[in-house]
Write a structure and sequence with these properties.
The complex is a heterodimer.
Chain A lengths: L4 E8 L13 H4 L10 H4 L13 H4 L5 E4 L11 H9 L3 E4 L4 H9 L4 E3 L3 H6 L8 E5 L4 E4 L4 E4 L5 H9 L7
Parallel strand pairs in A: 1-2, 2-3, 3-4
Antiparallel strand pairs in A: 1-5, 5-6, 6-7
Chain B lengths: L4 H7 L11 E5 L2 E5 L3 H11 L12 E4 L9 H17 L2 E3 L6 H7 L8 E4 L13 E4 L2 H10 L1 E5 L3 E7 L8 H12 L8 E5 L8 H9 L8 E3 L4 H10 L18 E6 L6 E3 L7 E3 L10 E4 L7 H11 L9 E4 L4 H10 L1 H7 L3 E2 L20 E4 L13 E4 L2 H10 L10
Parallel strand pairs in B: 2-3, 2-5, 3-4, 5-6, 8-9, 8-11, 9-10, 14-15, 14-17, 15-16, 17-18
Antiparallel strand pairs in B: 1-7, 12-13
Helix pairs in contact in B: 2-5, 6-7, 9-12
Classes of the chains: A alpha/beta, B alpha/beta.
The site of iron/sulfur cluster has 10 residues of chain B, from loops.
Chain lengths: 175, 418
């Protein structure tokens, strides 16, 4: 049984001007020059390798990390590698204002937790959430605790279906 | 709380609570796979279920070869054979290269019924809204899972209402109305939503008209589009479907909509979508300076018998301009048969038209009717993105405007040649 409560440290995906980046497409996440890679263990090192300012992400990332990013994350092509590269690095979850439709489908099918957080940017502005803060996420209740700052937030939890697939590991293993 | 049409269909196919944006398990009545995507569906079934790659229910899975039919190269020939062999091994029906476009085959053969849930490896499967069914294009991984488990997850979409006011008459057709709607709502109003269309015009919409409008819900960015049925539409379904079937759901009066718009079609002219977007729409008469090199009538949007008839209505007393080739491709074997039996095939043939066997033709992978660089093609298809129908420029319009334009050699409002 996979954990329903997990901890991890935050990366807020911002540009040089410290603005959260919107519309990160699948080519910036996992560039199409690596599409021939089919072994998930090989995928991690190319995560964000084509996103300006973030191409060293695979070196910085630690298992359990939680990625926070702008709206329409994963727009573009249907490549599964754009999800699998984060699984490969041991990233625990992605939180965004919204996701590209196919990206969302791929993430859910892979049993990879993704959350939509509407007013995340306000919380960041208020200083309630910083890079490398440690969060604890309860995927069943949607409660996010910032352990570093001792504040709690609430986001829509994973749906029953997402939990079914998450617990099974991926869509194919679910009953 | 009242329900919209899609909410009712989902409710009948799920134990989960049907509220917009909820992710639910949805039972699927039918999955189809074509000659593109199909081989990968087979590959996934063999890979993820090596002990038993058979479908959950062989009656609920069919192959439809339509993209490149018959195969024109080894890639497609091999892909089709992979599907055939799986079909033979597990008793899955194959509508082979003779049958036609999958979404129309399942209609012509009475397989599709109102309120069904259907998925296929075809991005235009929301066309099935024309028959009161929920249809959705999906990737090969998703389809393989559905074939094996009979269900998948889906996010309940919100519904928007599009009310059509006014009336239309020949030579304005359902395609012009479709393009006109696209021009108004573009790809944003209905993005990711189900659409319910309402209006008096639907009292006279034929099944072919409904198909034209619903097929281009894809280009509107919508999940699926539903149109109220008239008695004749129901009769047409009865002719095809064996035995009794459930009447199409209608929305409750207190159903909740995300948004609503009203479009007045009074007095609209024939419409044309210039490249590079299907919503880049103007009046045909405003594009009269554009010379055309070829015409294409077909695709899942406009390849039914009624579309062929409409072309002949314009061509009958005219001739196609020298040097211009008009290619017409029926959607299914049934439509081809009708063309032969009624003699319309011969009449169009005598006008110099090229008529091929049923398939997606120029719409897919450069089969029949693909264009060369610099060639201007006037087409009844549904997409005019660069490269979609070849290297040339594709203008989208109704069968009637295609006919008028191949007569004059430039984009032409059909009123000019009537
Ligand atoms: S005719 Fe074109 S749009 Fe329609 S199903 Fe075939 S390839 Fe797709």
């Amino acid at each position: 049984m996979r954990d329903k409560i997990f901890k991890g440290k935050v990366w807020i995906i911002r540009d040089n001007e410290k603005k959260i980046i919107d519309d990160i497409d699948t080519d910036q996440i996992f560039h199409n020059r690596y599409l021939t890679i089919t072994d998930i263990n090989e995928m991690g090192k190319y995560a964000f390798d084509n996103l300006e300012g973030w191409n060293d992400f695979s070196k910085k990332a630690e298992p359990g990390d939680i990625i926070i990013t702008g709206k329409n994350f994963g727009a573009g092509s249907s490549r599964q590698q754009a999800v699998d590269c984060f699984i490969s690095l041991g990233v625990n979850a992605i939180i965004s204002r919204s996701f590209g439709a196919i990206y969302k489908r791929n993430a859910i099918n892979s049993g990879f937790p993704i959350f939509v957080w509407d007013n995340m940017e306000e919380e960041i502005q208020k200083g309630n959430l910083n890079d490398r803060d440690e969060l604890e996420i309860n995927i069943e209740t949607g409660e996010i605790k910032n352990l570093t700052k001792n504040i709690s937030f609430k986001v829509p939890p994973l749906s029953r279906v997402q939990l079914d697939i998450y617990e099974a590991g991926n869509l194919f293993k679910s009953e | 709380m009242g329900k919209t049409i899609i909410e009712k269909i989902f409710h009948a196919h799920s134990k989960d609570e049907i509220i917009p944006n909820n992710i639910i398990w949805l039972d699927m009545d039918l999955a189809t796979a074509r000659d593109f995507g199909g081989p990968n569906v087979v590959k996934n079934l063999r890979k993820y279920y090596p002990e038993d790659p058979s479908p959950l229910d062989k009656e609920r899975f069919v192959f439809t070869f339509d993209l490149v039919a018959p195969a024109k190269n080894k890639k497609y020939a091999n892909n089709q054979q992979i599907c055939r062999e799986y079909g033979k091994e597990f008793g899955v029906k194959v509508y082979d290269v003779d049958a036609g476009i999958g979404s129309h085959v399942i209609y012509d053969r009475g397989i599709i019924k109102p309120n069904m849930t259907v998925v296929g490896t075809d991005s235009h499967y929301n066309i099935l809204g024309a028959f009161g069914a929920f249809g959705q294009g999906m990737g090969d991984v998703d389809i393989a899972y559905i074939v094996k488990k009979g269900r998948t997850w889906f996010e309940v979409p919100e519904t928007v209402k599009v009310n059509i006011e006014g009336d239309f008459e020949f030579p304005v057709t359902a395609k012009d109305i479709t393009l006109y709607i696209l021009k108004q709502i573009k790809t944003t109003f209905a993005l990711g939503k189900a659409i319910e269309f309402y209006g008096d015009i639907f009292k006279k919409f034929t099944m072919a008209d409904r198909i034209t409008l619903c097929s281009m819900v894809t280009e509107m960015g919508g999940i699926v589009g539903f149109i109220p049925f008239n008695n004749k539409n129901i009769e047409e379904l009865k002719e095809r479907i064996e035995g009794d079937f459930e009447m199409p759901f209608t929305a409750d009066s207190d159903a909740r909509y995300n948004n609503e718009t009203t479009i007045d079609i009074t007095g609209i002219n024939s419409q044309v979508a210039a490249p590079p977007y299907p919503h880049n729409v103007s009046d045909a008469k405003d594009l009269h300076d554009i010379n055309v090199d070829s015409g294409f009538v077909g695709s899942c949007t406009n390849g039914r018998y009624e579309d062929f008839e409409a072309v002949y209505r314009i061509l009958e007393k005219n001739t196609i301009r020298k040097g211009i080739v008009l290619t017409m491709v029926p959607v299914t074997r049934e439509v081809l048969e009708q063309l032969l039996v009624t003699g319309l095939f011969m009449k169009l043939f005598a006008k110099g038209v090229v008529i091929s066997n049923p398939s997606c033709a120029g719409c897919a992978e450069g089969h029949i009717g693909i264009t060369g660089k610099g060639q201007v093609n006037i087409s009844t298809g549904n997409r005019n993105y660069p490269g979609k129908q070849g290297d040339g420029d594709t203008y989208l319009t109704s069968p009637v405007v295609v006919a008028a334009s191949v007569i004059t050699g430039r984009i032409t409002d059909p009123k000019e040649v009537l």
